[in-house]
Amino acid sequence: MLNDIAYVLLSAQEIEKRVSEIAAQINSDYSGKEPIIVSVLRGSFIFMADLVRKLDLKCTVDFMYVSSYENRSVTTGAVKIVKDLDIDLEGKDVIIVEDILDSGLTLHYLKELLMTRRPASIRTCSLLDKPARRKAQVTADYVGFEVPDAFVVGYGLDYAQKYRNLPFIGVLKSDIYENE
Ligand code: IMP
Questions:
Q1: Atom number, ligand 1, closest to the C-alpha of residue 101
Q2: pLDDT tens figures, 135-155
Q3: Tell me: the pLDDT tens digits for 80-117?
Q4: Which of 68, 94, 95, 166 has its CA 20 to 30 A from that of 116?
């Protein structure tokens, strides 16, 4: 698996430090509140697990499974809801947790959708931001790292459902997806 990685972009230590900083910011912003943390599956599962364990808040968690990539390294723009939330968002403070903001289509779509459920507030948190490829007018309220225009894997992010279990974030060798 490691042979498929061109280079390590963000080490496990760097990620851990930044996740702590984001959690501290959320702890301060939501002090005394009980936000609902919405994890966008599958890519955010590791970030979500690390982030919520650093939150000193009586938060609840829920999961939404959306699919847009269908095993390819370019986005189709279509967002399919495979699993919706179970929790009612009305009157609640919601934080959407994403792995990466790429075209921005997924987060834009999800934010609009969840707004229709009349929450008290919605903020977004993305571990990575790849602004070079943005198509939708969307920015995240909390961002871990800005990354270059390269296909990255690890710490929850996949290529064709693989590499999610890498403890760091690395750039995938281009021949892995070019030889498809
Ligand atoms: P969007 O293009 O912002 O809608 O991103 C949709 C989803 O594509 C993200 O939540 C990721 O799961 C996936 N994605 C985008 N860029 C990458 C990447 O570089 N590596 C792995 N997954 C990616």
A1: 3
A2: 999 999 999 999 999 999 999
A3: 899 999 999 999 999 999 999 999 999 999 999 999 99
A4: 68
**Dihedral sign (CA 157, 78, 130, 138):** negative
Fold of 25-150: Rossmann fold (3.40.50)
Residues in contact with ligand 1 by the CB-under-6-Å rule are: 43, 68-69, 75, 98-106, 151-153, 157-158
pTM assigned to the model: 0.94
Angle CA 150–151–154, to nearest 5: 125
Domain range summary for the chain, segments of one domain joined by +:
25-150
Residue 65 host element (H or E): strand 60-67
Instruction: Provide the pLDDT confidence category of residue 79 given band limits of 50, 70 and 90.
Output: confident
